[in-house]
Each structure stands twice: as structure tokens, then as C-alpha cells.
Amino acid sequence: MKNELIVGTIQMTCNDNRHENQLKTERKIKKLANENIDLIVLQELHDSLYFCQTEDVKQFDLAQELPGQATQFYSMLAKKYNVVLVASLFEKRTAGLYHNTAVVFEKNGSIAGIYRKMHIPDDPGYYEKFYFAPGDLGFEPIKTSVGTLGVMICWDQWYPEAARIMALKGADILIYPTAIGYDFKDSEEERKTQLNSWKTIQKSHAIANGIPLICVNRSGVEISENSKNKIHFWGNSFVCDPQGKTLYQADEIEESGITTICMNQSEKVRRNWPFLRDRRIEEYYEIQKRFIDHKKGLF
User: Fold this and answer.
1) What pLDDT does 298 receive?
2) Residue 280: which CATH number?
């Protein structure tokens, strides 16, 4: 693992044409590659619009088998531009079974590993349970030439258990491709509250585990043809160090970022904040319960 990791992040708008989105992504990767980037992280479901605003069986046509055209394309890009690449794809596992899947490509174009989204939301405008089966690969870090990557996806970023398991299994860095935004009915105050909560929870994962974190969100306004609902994706992709210090912060518009992460900082931070040493693992058995109602004695 390199002591200094140069990371590229691509926050962009998408349309309903897969080919155009892929070509746009390649242009942005090419530009970053000229800066000697080691690792490039893309946003969630970057090959299409965010189709989960409504429940529509026609959207399953967007899914692809892995390997397939998408993996071939991103494999080519990783090899062509000599970068480790984290992509986010709509996986067709078999007829009627689909996943929200991150694929990590090595610099030689090979697939280093995949991660299937574990936590699947079902909220107004985010009807993902209709489309995606929960991941069945667990929280397994992916080993690459630039380090061991703890890749998860969007809704996973709210769960400290997931980040902890990735760290305990040796992840050097936490990575979250993301698609999240504002409801147009939200007040300005509510929007600020949501954005702050989103940043805070992720930075807490970096701090609690003593490792850096990369989050790449999409941007732009997307309107569902069926429901006419709109999501204003808030962008704000960011990178933070093991103490939660912001190293890079995007705005709401399209933006590609370049960040240098000092990977040996984790060793220094964990020596001074030895959270892993002081964990009382023998007392955490209750965490496996859905809820504990002590008044009623029910679990």
C-alpha cells in the first residue's frame, strides 16, 4: 500500500442514455488520469438515471449480467488509464433477481472484487426494495494494488455496524458510491439538517475506525416520467481523514475532485485513539437484537 494515495472522485449528472453516460464518464476519467491518479471512485448507478423514484417493471431492462457490456467497458477504462476503478452497476443475477452492485477493477482491467448493497431502502422516491435483493456477500473488503477497500453503497453509509465490520476485516479505507438528495417539499432548514446529518454519520465511521473515507454522490435534478416526482441530488461528495477532517469537499454541481490521502495516518491515529483495543466485545451480544424493550421483557 502506498503511503500517499491520490484519489479521483467523479460527481456528475446523468441522463437516460447508457452509452452517453459511459462516454461522459470516460472523458472525466481521462482528465483525472492525466494527474497520476491511483484510485477513481464513481457515484451510485452512474450508467442511468436514478430509476428507483417509482416502481416500474420496465426498469429491470436496465440491469446487466456480470460480466457483461458494462464490466467490459469499465475494465477497459481501468486498464487504459492505469487506475483502480470503483464502479456501481445494476446487476442482473438471473431472471427476476437483481442487485445494486459495486465492482472494483484493478489497473490491469481485472475484477478485484464485487460488493452487493446490503441495506436496501424503501422510502418515498427511493423504492429500492422493488428492484434490489439484499446483498449476500457480506461486508468483505476488496484487496487491490492501492490498498484494501471497504466498499459499500449509499444506504449502507448510515450503519456503523457495517463500517466497523469492514474495518475489523482489514479495510484501509471506507468508500461509499451514493445517490441521495433533497425532496423539493423540504424547507431550506430541513435540507441543511439532512445534509449535515449525512456528513456527520459518515465522518463518525472514519473517526470510530481510524481510517479515511470517500463518499461520491450524484448531482442534478432528476424527474420521474411516471410520477413526475423530482429529486434534487445534493452532490457534496467528500473525502475525510481518520479523524474526520475534510480533505476534499464538492459543491452541488458536477465536479471531479483530486485528493491526496496519507494512508499511514491511520497507524498514528489508532495509537492515540485505540478504540479497537478498548472495545468490550463480550458485552455487545445484544446488538444482534432488532430492538430491546426492557419494560416488557420483549426483544
Assistant:
1) 57
2) 3.60.110.10
